[in-house]
Amino acid sequence: MANSTSNKPAPDLAAALRQQWSALMADRCVLEVALSGGLDSVVLLHVLQRLQSELPITVRAVHVHHGLQAAADEWVVFCQNLCAQWQIPLRVEKVAVSRNGQGIEGAARTARYAAFARSEAAALVLAHHQDDQTETFMLAALRGGGLRALAAMPPLRRLDDDKVLWRPLLPFSRAQLQQYAAAWQLPYVEDGSNHDTSLLRNWLRQQGLPPWQARLPHLAAQIGSSIGQLQDALALQDEVCAQDWQQVCAGGVFDVQHWRRLSPQRQQLQLHYFARQHDLGVPSRSSIAAFAAQLRLPEITQAQWPLPQGAAVLHRHILWPQRADIQQQWPWLAQLPCCVAVGVAPTAVPLYWRAHALGLPADMADLSLRCVLPNDVLLLKIGRKNVKKMLQERKVAPFMRNIWPILVDQEQRCVAVPGVAVAVDVGVAGGLLPWVAGLPKIIKT
Among residues 373, 357, 376, which one has the least CA distance to residue 445? Predict the structure, then answer.
């Protein structure tokens, strides 16, 4: 445990956070602070705990136990005792850090943010400060990062559809947080790994940046100004990118013919956006440029773009995402086969029903949903037709034909292909056609 002391006056963090909350967060009243037990997060939790009496907010805390340090169990106890003293509900998340090709810092961050995403609060509040922001910018520059990396950490960003991440301490230096902690005599823990200069961030903090700061006393403020301009540029780029995406994906899929109408720079942005949207990993600049050049060739109809978490597959003029782990892309595959009744949505599979000119009767039961097999056929007016051949004619990419679900009866005869058609010997006028959410919607039925 440690306490910092200083003769300098403590900054009025409460006033600053009160103003930020009113401007940015007034519609979010349940806040969960990421509490490591270190100086920064303890200061943040203390300020918000004080503000509970002034603002209509409820403050909680979450501590992520990574298990990477010998003192990790002690940090849990410290956070539990602190939150009990301040009457703050605490959620402790014990995570397993799996590297999966990442560095240990990146893997820990991935596990930590997954724990954050499980929060029931409206906002996760993180204690990143001005020094962290400077280090993040410098690390991005040293690693050759692009606009998104150089824009560092935004004060507010969306975590998922329901939650946001809020970083209210970005305007303040670590020294100011130390002054606040000294004034309020706050206890906090010290992480010994912060002194390990084999880690680039720690080296930058302890050896790389101090000479720059001695030569340029206002370095952090100047870098902060640059970051603000970069974040504005990034916001504008994202706005243009989202507009282009609407045009490229006007038919519900990534149409390369529409993509080719964009400028080369906007084409590359769309490919980067495609990888991000489908959780395929972050592609390198050279990888994007090479695949863009390939897609520009008018005669090309088949291509594959390897990505860190899978691939982008060109089939005809449509670009499809293919995750490395197919069950991450289609989680319901693990639930097949499963029993289905017409008109009823199964709990484990995103199957739903639409009225159709020729659909299944509402009283039909004892059906199963499973993946298509090579010899599966569907009875049409023109005779029996191989299901995979039907999917091929409707321009479904080959890898998707292998996992397409079908409905079969007790004799394993195909009675319906979701999103495509039902068998004529069981279909009725105005019946129900099954669909599976997420599958391509370019099917002509």
Answer: 357
Per-residue model confidence (pLDDT) at position 44: 98
Q: How far lies 83's CA from each of 36, 169, 190, in Å? A: 12, 20, 18
- Which pLDDT belongs to residue 261? 96
Residues 362/431, Cβ–Cβ less than 8 Å: yes
> The tokens of 222 are what?
């100047």
Measured distance CA(307)–CA(329) in Å, rounded: 14
Nearest to 253 by CA among 321, 350, 327: 321
Q: Which two tokens stand for residue 299?
A: 């005669």
- For residues 375 and 178, what is the distance between their CA atoms, to the nearest angstrom? 70
Under the phi-then-psi rule, with left for phi > 0, alpha for psi from -120 to 50, and beta for the rest, what region is 215?
A: alpha
Cα distance between residue 63 and residue 128, in whole Å: 15
What is the C-alpha end-to-end distance of the chain, expressed in Å? 68
4 pLDDT band, cuts 50/70/90, is very low
Note the pLDDT of residue 2. 45
With residue 179 as reference, give the H or E element that holds it: helix 174-184
